[in-house]
Amino acid sequence: MEIFDKVNAILAEMNAAAPQNAEETEQFRIKYLGSKNILKPLMGEIRNVPNERKKEYGQLINKVKQAAQNKYDELKAASENAADAAEAQDLDLTAPGEPLELGSRHPVSIVMNRIIQIFERIGFTVSEEREIEDDWHNFTAMNTPEDHPARDMQDTFYLKDSMQMLLRTHTSSVQARTMTTEKPPIRIIAPGRVYRNETISSRSHAQFHQVEGLYIDENVSFADMKQTLLYFAKEMYGVDKEIRLRPSYFPFTEPSAEMDVYWGLESEADYRITKGTGWLEILGCGMVDPQVLENCGIDPEKYSGFAFGMGIERQAMLLYGIEDIRLLFENDVRFLRQFASAL
Predict the structure, then answer these.
(1) Distance from C-alpha of 167 to C-alpha of 155, rounded to nearest angstrom
(2) Distance, CA of 86 to CA of 21 (rounded, Å)
(3) Going along 218-270, which residue ranges are E strands?
(4) Closest CA to 107 of 324, 326, 334, 319
C-alpha cells in the first residue's frame, strides 16, 4: 500500500541522515521526535488501513519511532564526546594546579574524640540519647529534689506549654536511661550537647558539651574511681600530672568530689587560670547515690558504682589556650583554620 511505502521511505531517509554538529542533531530531533514530527500525520492514517493490516502498520510506526530515538541518542552521545575531546585538547596539563584548602575539625570535636578514645581503652562504651528529655530522667531519677534551683526556669529551657519536657541540662539523663534499660555491669561514657539558661559571656554559654561516665558493678569502690580518673588525667594532660579530690556535693553522688589537676605556675596565664594555686578544677565525680540506683531499678545492696562529668569546652579552652568560649560557637573560619594540624 502507498501509506506503507511512505513510512518505509521516512525510515530510509532517517537511516541515511548524518548530522555533523550539535545544531544538525537538534534539527534531526525536531523532525523525527519533536511535538510536530514527520510521523504524526501518518499515525492518523491508521483509520484508512484495512483491519487485517492495522497491527502491522502500528508496529511499523513504532519501529520508526524507536529507530529515531536510538539514532538521536547515539548522535547526542557522539556530539558530547566530541565536545569533551575538544575541551581536553585545550587543557594545559603543565599548568600548576589550584591549591585545595584542607578542612579542619572543630576543637570541641577534637577534644571529645580524644576523651572518648581514652576511656574506650579501659572498657567504656559510648552511649548517646535524646537532647529533648523529660523531667523524670533529667532530674527525678538523678535524685534532684523538687525544690532544687536547677529545676527553675532561670536554669532550664522548658518546652513551650510544658513543665515536663525540656532541653537536657546534663548528660546524666543518658545514665538514667541506661540504668533503667540495662543490667549491671554497666560501663559507659555519655558525650553530648546540653543546655542551660545562662547569660552568655567569655566563660559561660547557654549551650555546651559534656562527657559523663558511669561504672556500676559489684564491689566498685572510691579507689576504683580515683585510679580511673588518674589514668584519664595522665593520658589527657601528660604522665607527670598530679590530681587531687576535694569534697563537694551533687544530688546523685555520695560522697561527691571535685577533681583538680596540678597545672603549674610557670607563666602569667597559669597564675590567672589557677588563681595562683597551680591547681585547676577539671571535673566533678562521686559514688552513685544508692537512691539513684533504686530509682532506676538497680539493687543498691548488691551493686555500687561511680560517676563523673566534665565540660568539653573547658578542656578545649585549657588545651588550646582559648580565653573566650564564644569563639567555639561563632564558626569563624579564621579561628577554626588554626586546628587543621590537629586532625
Answers:
(1) 11
(2) 13
(3) 243-250, 253-262
(4) 319
User: When comparing pLDDT for 26 and 112, which is higher?
Assistant: 112
pLDDT digits (tens, 9 = 90+) for 100-116: 776 678 889 999 999 99
One-letter amino acid of 203: R
Given a contact cutoff of 8 angstroms between Cβ atoms, the answer to whether 249 and 264 are in contact is: no
Domain ranges, residue 143: 107-342
Higher-confidence residue: 161 or 32?
161
Whether residues 202 and 308 share a domain: the answer is yes
Helix (H) or strand (E) holding 69: helix 51-89
Flag whether pLDDT at 185 surpasses 90: yes
DSSP string for 154-177: TT--BPTT-SSEEE-SSTHHHHHH
pLDDT score recorded for residue 150: 67
DSSP state of 50: -
Which is nearest to 187 in space by CA: 169, 175, 173? 175
- Nearest CA to 188 out of 305, 294, 311 is that of 305
| Average of per-residue pLDDT across 141-169 | 81
Grid cell, residue 229, equals 580518673
User: What CATH number is attached to the domain comprising 313?
Assistant: 3.30.930.10
DSSP state of 42: H
Which amino acid does the sequence have at 219?
N
Q: In Å, how far are 55, 193, 343 from 107, measured between CA atoms? A: 73, 14, 10
The number of folded domains in the chain is 2
